[in-house]
Design goal:
The protein has 351 residues and is of the alpha/beta class. Helices cover 28% and strands 28% of the residues. This is Alcohol dehydrogenase.
Length: 351
């Protein structure tokens, strides 16, 4: 999203003249009305102003008289494809993205959503695992090279990033690295750059960051496990991280667990509450991160540490670590059931 959507924000105290000035001067061609806590109150287009003036409003009237208080909106984190489809369905040129509390997170325009993107941010794919739970499939093949449909898992992941505009890849290897390097080479067949870092001994998901070369671009790095299939909007993830200026961002998914019994609460011998088979909801780690250079350059070489432990240390040091809930398709191919599910899902999602 290249245009600065924050320049089109107005408060209810502004006038129609103010809205008209913004619409005429800013490329987004809309004005957005928010309150002091950034709750979305309404959207104003040129057409809204023309209709209001025809109904005897003046340029000094409040924007509340002209704004559409119920514009088409989308949830923050919605993917570009869904946003394009939404805007085309309703013949609108932009859509506000709001969080669960109704606060404006950003504003996506149809023009920007349709533009091909190009990011130099490094993408670090962790492809060194043994895939023990997928034996015997992994006895002679590293897990990321197992085929889902017609392609290896790792190639599907690579293509997902390429379609989002990323071209600078680093792949961490350990188990049967020669198969991965022989298949992907330097990335030229895909029009991208691939650099390999090899773990002589497993260093954990966080420790592999210490093997990255010195000449890596000084930009936030997207890190992902090499056995994950997902349609998450990586551009939106990166934008979220950059907006909030955190040391790291972790993607999380909501996980529901239903207790198969009636749960009883009490005070001594006295029952105070009963709930039949309640559902507990948690956020779980999705194995996808955005990491700032300050963090990944500070990881020592050959130092074993997992990402959760690395991020916990940042929290202890008072640094901001954010979570980015993902609602798109996501599958961690860790077990045989997951592998079989991926074979069914891939046809409609990735090929």
């Amino acid at each position: 999203m290249m245009k600065d959507w924050k320049k089109v924000l107005l408060s209810p105290e502004h006038t129609i003249r103010d809205a008209l000035t913004i619409i005429n001067s800013e490329a987004l061609r809309v004005a957005v009305v928010v309150d002091g806590q950034h709750h979305l109150l309404g959207l104003i287009t040129d057409g809204d102003i023309r209709r209001a003036l025809l109904n005897n409003a003046t340029l000094e009237s409040s924007v509340e008289q002209v704004m559409n208080p119920n514009p088409i909106t989308a949830a923050a984190g919605t993917g570009k494809k869904e946003l394009v489809a939404l805007m085309q369905r309703y013949s609108i040129l932009s859509v506000p993205l709001i969080d669960q509390d109704g606060r404006l997170e950003s504003l996506e325009s149809l023009e920007e959503a349709l533009k091909p993107s190009n990011y130099n941010n490094p993408v670090f794919i962790m492809a060194g695992g043994f895939g023990t739970r997928l034996r015997p499939l992994t006895d002679h093949c590293p897990k990321p090279m197992l085929k889902v449909g017609e392609r290896p898992i790792l190639e599907i992941l690579l293509l997902t990033f390429i379609r989002s505009g990323f071209s600078n890849f680093y792949i961490s290897t350990h188990y049967m690295p020669e198969q991965i390097e022989a298949y992907f080479g330097d990335g030229a067949l895909w029009g991208v750059n691939i650099t390999y870092v090899h773990e002589e001994v497993p260093l954990g998901t966080g420790g592999a960051l210490g093997l990255l070369p010195e000449n890596i671009p000084e930009l936030p790095l997207i890190m992902i496990n090499g056995d994950v299939l997902t349609t998450v909007d990586f551009e939106r993830l990166l934008e979220f991280h950059n907006q909030h200026d955190a040391i790291a961002t972790m993607c999380v998914r909501e996980y529901d667990y239903q207790i198969p019994y009636g749960v009883v609460s009490g005070d001594g011998h006295r029952i105070t509450h009963m709930e039949e088979k309640p559902v507990q909801r948690f956020f779980v780690n999705a194995g996808i991160y955005v990491v700032d250079p300050e963090l990944y350059r500070a990881v020592p070489s050959q130092h074993r540490i997992d990402m959760p432990s690395l991020l916990e240390k940042q929290l202890e040091d008072g640094k901001d670590v954010l979570m980015f809930p993902i609602h798109e398709y996501w599958l961690d191919i860790g077990r045989m059931d997951d592998f079989h599910k991926a074979q069914l899902d891939v046809k409609g999602l990735f090929q």
